[in-house]
Amino acid sequence: MKQLAYLNKYFWRYRRHFLLGFLFVSLSNYFRVLQPQTIREALDLVVENLYLYRMYQGTELEGDFFGMLSLQLFYFGFLVLVLAVFMGLFMYWMRQTIIVMSRLMEYDMRKEVFAHYEKLDLAFYKRNNTGDLMSRITEDINKVRMYLGPAVLYGVNLISLFILVIYSMLMVSAELTMYCLIPLPFLSISIYYVSTLINTQSEKIQQQLATLNSTAQEVYSGIRVVKSYVQEAATVKHFAAQSDRFKQQSLRLAVTNSLFFPLMVLLTGMSTLLVIYFGGLQVVKGTITPGNIAEFVIYVNMLTWPVTAIGWIASIVQQAAASQKRINEFLKTQPTIVNLGSNTQDLSGEIEFKNVTFTYPDTGITALKEVSFKLEPGQKMAIIGRTGSGKTTIADLLLRMYDVTEGQILLDNQALSTHDLAKLRKRIGYVPQDVFLFSDTISANIVFGRREAPQAEIEDFARYASVYNDIMDLPKGFDTLVGERGVTLSGGQKQRVSIARALIKKPDIVILDDCLSAVDTNTEKQVLEYFSGALAQKTAIIITHRIYSLLQFDKIIVMDGGRVVEAGTHEELLANKGYYADLFEKQTEEVPTASL
Ligand SMILES: Nc1ncnc2c1ncn2[C@@H]1O[C@H](COP(=O)(O)OP(=O)(O)OP(=O)(O)O)[C@@H](O)[C@H]1O
């Protein structure tokens, strides 16, 4: 339960809503409790006057007496109505304060969790799967919201109603109060068990629904494979089996749900029975009036829902505590990559790796071993090597997605950590290998790192990245939606949009990670021409599997198993007759007219 203490800061922030809510609940309940008392008075009035009425029956005063009695009853009826109006009014305000409070808290909390997620480093995202992150920010926060809103509301309601009703009951008869309260703890306990059962079953159903969703989603995403392997029937069978499990679980829940109300009615019915029986005995003895019995029956009914709610609240609080525990786990996770630097100068582009060794914290894989190289401002370097040889890791370290395990990276002759992290990332234009575009317009994707860029520049950079004509061929040009909600761009088009996105930032250093792999040789040639022209003054690192003779590299390093196994210029490496020379030879044979 101590997990929920984290939420106290929100209660403090919205204390005004909370206190007002408490006041409105109490006022609403006050008017509610006055109702049975008015009904009791009305009923007693009728009982008392019945005798007198019989006396006047048949006389000429009968009409007057009846009129007077009706007027009094009308007055009581009107009073009950007025009380109901006040009760309803305060009930409306109670929801407007407490439920609104819970929604405000939910909003603050979701924002806090999302902002915290964004601060966490890449290693955190590798350790935890996206589904888990999503469920904590959606389902878990929803469950906590149930505690902040409905549970608090019914809890506050329960306390104030209990005090008022029990007080009013005790004023009439302590003995009768005791009898009618006997079944209520049983009601509360059994509702607690039933709602816990309902919650467990609902959770299983939710999980099964998630499985069902992902099964369907996977089939739709991989529909080409499914169709080409003629696996439609098999996937339908698999889906039907999952649906069947969902159906069974839902039917089980329906059985449990149908226990809820009969149980409630049974136990409150017993309370009513006890009130009528023992109350009747007391009326005979003359200690209470018949109106008191009616008053008590209404009290018992009033208590039914709050007492039921005890079990329900307990179950909500239990779930909220479990969810808050999961949320706290992430909130307490601190990023390992933090901003230690204050250097916000633009970069001249000098990069030096000094004996850099790096081991991925989550897998223990040593991706780089004593890697050293130096680039002067404006120099271009190619990194070549087999897959898994550590090329991307070099880019990740330069962007401080991870910190080196051993050795040092210097940027402009200063340790990487002395540079302001945000500024450092802003000054590096990085085109990652796995291109990712947001479900937004092409324009919005291009200006992602420099939102104020004017349309003319967006178009210019699309031209530099050789994607302008492709974009203009789309139905809405730069306003075309891409991704899930829009058109699907080809792999090569996506790569070029992502190049435009990196270049429009006008970075000091450019890193391209195998980002021309999916474009044809002509397009590749155009992009590289732009690089050798417009980016002549920028330091650039190009990670690739292809050898480009178009672009004059000042340096080429060949990676293997995390080490730099060859380094030098194109000519030096050819003379070396190693991996590079081999690759060059193979590529010359394969594509004699390509970009070589
Ligand atoms: N986020 C990560 N967590 C753990 N290990 C990783 C991670 N990224 C890469 N590795 C491992 O580090 C090694 C180097 O990977 P890296 O991505 O740097 O290679 P690469 O040369 O860029 O490969 P490719 O040409 O296929 O992109 C590989 O063994 C890989 O499995």
UniProtKB/TrEMBL annotation:
A GO molecular function assigned to this protein is: ATP binding
Residues in ABC transporter domain copies: 351-586
Arranged from A to Z, the UniProt key words for this protein are: ATP-binding, Cell membrane, Membrane, Nucleotide-binding, Transmembrane, Transmembrane helix, Transport
Query: Where is coiled-coil annotated?
Result: none
Where does this protein reside within or beyond the cell? Answer: Cell membrane
Q: What is the lineage of its organism?
A: Bacteria, Pseudomonadati, Bacteroidota, Saprospiria, Saprospirales
> What is its membrane topology?
Multi-pass membrane protein
Kindly report the protein's main subcellular placement as a broad class.
membrane
TM stretches of this protein: 73-94, 151-170, 176-194, 259-284, 296-317
Per the UniProt record, the source organism is Haliscomenobacter hydrossis (strain ATCC 27775 / DSM 1100 / LMG 10767 / O)
What InterPro entries does the database record attribute to this sequence? AAA+_ATPase (IPR003593), ABC1_TM_dom (IPR011527), ABC1_TM_sf (IPR036640), ABC_transporter-like_ATP-bd (IPR003439), ABC_transporter-like_CS (IPR017871), P-loop_NTPase (IPR027417), Type_1_exporter (IPR039421)
The cross-references to CDD domains, in alphabetical order and at most eight, read: ABC_6TM_TmrB_like (cd18541)
Q: Which residues form the ABC transmembrane type-1 domain?
A: 19-319
**SMART domains reported in the protein's UniProt record:** AAA
Q: What is this protein called?
A: Xenobiotic-transporting ATPase
SUPFAM superfamilies to which the protein is assigned, alphabetical: ABC transporter transmembrane region, P-loop containing nucleoside triphosphate hydrolases
Q: Which GO terms describe its cellular component?
A: plasma membrane
